[in-house]
Amino acid sequence: MIEKGKISMRQFTILVFMYTLGTSVISLPSISTTFAHENGWIAVLMASIIGMLLVFMYIIISKLDEKKNLFELAEWIFGKWIGKAISALILLFILFLTAGNLRQIGDFLSTQIMTETPIQVLMVMFLLTALFAVKLGLEVTARTCEVFFPYAFFALLALLVMVTPTVDITKIQPILQKNMVGTFEAIVPSLGTPFLELFIFIAILPYVKKPKSARKGYLIGVGLGSFFLVAITFMCLTVLGADFTARNLFPTYVLGKTISLVQFLERIEIIVAIAWFFTIYFKIVLNFYVLSLGMSHFFQLKKTHTLSVPLAFFIIVLATINSPNIIYYLDFILYYWAPFAAVFGILIPVLVLIVGKIKVRKKDNITKTE
């Protein structure tokens, strides 16, 4: 293994939690509600359940060989050339994913907060901090994530608590009595981000001190993140309404603007935005780290961060040219991202699991006969 650092089960759980929220915490309510309308929160709940089942599959894959990361497993199971081809496809996917995440934070900052600053400057500044984290390694990233986790967790929890007085349940009624087709359609894009992207943690599991407890942390992190995604979507629908939530690009951010407690505590949307900066930052860092790890393995380099600088350059270029504006990008997320991500989040893991199980059984049979 190229990476020598080790992280604890607690750190791994926090990383999974922050990654699960990632970009989704601020945009998923709009994505699910576009199709499901007042049933958007149910679509997110169903996507979360499917996502947990996918995590179970990823855990089983990691058990095939606890010492091998995602890219090493691909070569071990499929052989050198087919394994490298699969690794190359996964690396391209992570490259596009990282660029898309970077573009999303750039669009948010340039349209909502720092409207006078060019988006390219914002993306470069954000990615430079991610590059610094990748160079410092997984251990430092995990410890840093531990520091910022309480803020993100309690900021989002406070948001949920403080908007509760303005909840209007009639805005989501009648529940599941109309638009059933749209509800099931909404599961697909809701599954696309973040649940079909969670397979990247197969690349990080070997670097956790206790792999068995880490698998438990995998489930806890995704489960806790899913709870917040469902709860925030529910609050957006019951406070803002289905139509407004679907039409707004960042409904969670707008939700923070509605808070007014005794004319003293008002408009805490910037607190929500900062919490989101932390979740999307660590998602970008982890994607960037796994991308660097995979590239180092692919080219048989000794250090994980050897290619991190040229990779950062490609990510910036790709983030700049991959969509002309945020409307185009969100349209891609709505209709095309989930089928694309399913190839890497479902199809390839299923193949790895089936072929890997066959290989392990053959190996066990040979051992028994000897």
Low-confidence stretches: none
Spatial ordering of strands, largest sheet:
1-2
Structural class: mainly alpha
Hey, roughly how much beta strand do the residues contain?
under 5%
Task: Please outline the major beta sheet.
Answer: 2 strands, antiparallel
What's the CATH H-level superfamily name?
Amino acid/polyamine transporter I
Domain tally: 1
The helix/strand order is HHHHHHHHHHHEEHHH
* Rg measurement, Å: 21 Å
Count of DSSP strands? 2
Question: Given the structure, what is the number of helices?
Answer: 14
Mean pLDDT: 91
CATH class annotation: Mainly Alpha
Q: Describe the oligomeric state of these chains in a short phrase.
A: single chain
What's the architecture, going by CATH? Answer: Up-down Bundle
Query: What form results from the Cα inertia axes?
Result: globular
What's the CATH topology name? Amino acid/polyamine transporter I
Helicity level: over 70%
Describe this structure in words.
The chain has helices spanning 9-21, 24-36, 40-62, 70-78, 80-113, 119-136, 138-163, 180-192, 211-240, 242-247, 251-257, 269-298, 308-321, 326-369; strands at residues 260-261, 265-266. The protein is an all-alpha fold and 370 residues long. The chain has one domain: Up-down Bundle (Amino acid/polyamine transporter I). A two-stranded antiparallel ribbon has the order 1-2. Strand 1 and strand 2 (265-266) form a beta hairpin. Helix 2 crosses helix 3 (40-62) and helix 5 (80-113) packs across helix 13 (308-321). The longest helix is centred in the last third of the chain and has 44 residues, at 326-369. The radius of gyration is 21 Å and the shape is globular.
